[in-house]
Amino acid sequence: MRIATYLLPLFCCLPSVAQTVDIGVFSLFRPVELRVSPASRTLLVTAGDQRIILEGHRFFAVHLTQLSSTVQVSARDGSATDFYLSIPGKIERKFNGTLVIRFADHKLIAVVTMDREIAVASVVAAEMPTSAPIEALKAQAVATRSYYAASHPRHDEFSFCDSTHCQFLREPPAPGTAAQRATQETRNLLLEYAGKPFPAQYSAVCGGRTRSLEGEGEQISGYPYYSVPCNRCRRHSPGIVQGHRLGLCQSGAIGMAASAATFRAILDHYYPTAHVQPSN
């Protein structure tokens, strides 16, 4: 482990930030070792009673057998920042936020608390192809944001994970990319039903028609999903299904956007009776 050798006085608690989400990352790997390193700015690593400054190409290593207290990582002033997190020999990703590492159930648990809009852009970049029309990406951004805003926590140790169990999340897209633009241009817009945001469901390919919950005895977070036709899947992938077929069909959204539909028209089609509204 290579770390800076000087320590800092105790910092106060991290400042509260409006509209953040906490996301457990790399949990499918059940890691026993993690490494964190700066992406640009200096990092503050808090480990037990130590406050360690991490700069340049140095990294801080955390091993399950050596971890005796929670590790916290932030910018030097305790705020969110860019950093790299890796499982040596397996995976490395860049994140923006603050990081907490703890242990439970014979594995390390890494939780990144990030601005909701950064999480939305990261999901849009991961869930949709880079070639997707901008209006399809905007529709995905609104659905993604609604899911984060209205869902109850789905895990014991953190609210959401970075896999398809919750929403597939990778690195934040670079400035100027389509995913980042789609997120910016729909900032704070949510899907609402009966005056309340709901955690919008979506899937990759619906086979020609999305699924209704009517008669199935199911209820998913207050929205009555309807079965609607999907022209793109009817023409290009009839009968082929990838996902649960509830709500937005990503393939269908791409097809509608390619035919000049706006993101609002796409959402109106796949979520009948729902409305796009700004969050409070």
Strand % is 25-35%
Task: Provide the structure class.
Answer: alpha+beta
User: Number of DSSP helices?
Assistant: 6
The number of E-state strands comes to: 15
**Mean pLDDT level:** 91
Low confidence ranges: 1-17
Largest sheet: 10 strands, mixed
- Domains, number: 2
**Overall 3D shape:** elongated
Q: How many angstroms separate the termini?
A: 45 Å
Give the fraction of residues assigned to helices.
10-25%
Order of helices and strands: EEEEEEEEEHHEHEEEHEHHE
- Output the radius of gyration: 20 Å
Describe the structure.
The structure is a single chain. With 280 residues, the chain is α+β, with helices and mostly antiparallel strands. It folds into 2 domains: 33-105, no CATH class; 128-160 and 184-278, no CATH class. Helices cover 21% and strands 28% of the residues. The protein has 6 helices and 15 strands. The protein has helices spanning 116-127, 134-150, 178-185, 231-236, 250-258, 263-270, and strands at residues 20-25, 33-38, 43-47, 50-54, 60-63, 71-75, 81-87, 91-104, 107-115, 160-161, 189-193, 196-197, 202-203, 248-249, 275-278. The strands form 3 sheets. Strands 1, 2, 3, 4, 5, 6, 7, 8, 9 and 10 form a 10-stranded mixed beta sheet that branches. A 3-stranded antiparallel beta sheet has the order 12-11-15. α2 (134-150) runs antiparallel to α5 (250-258) and α2 (134-150) packs across α6 (263-270).
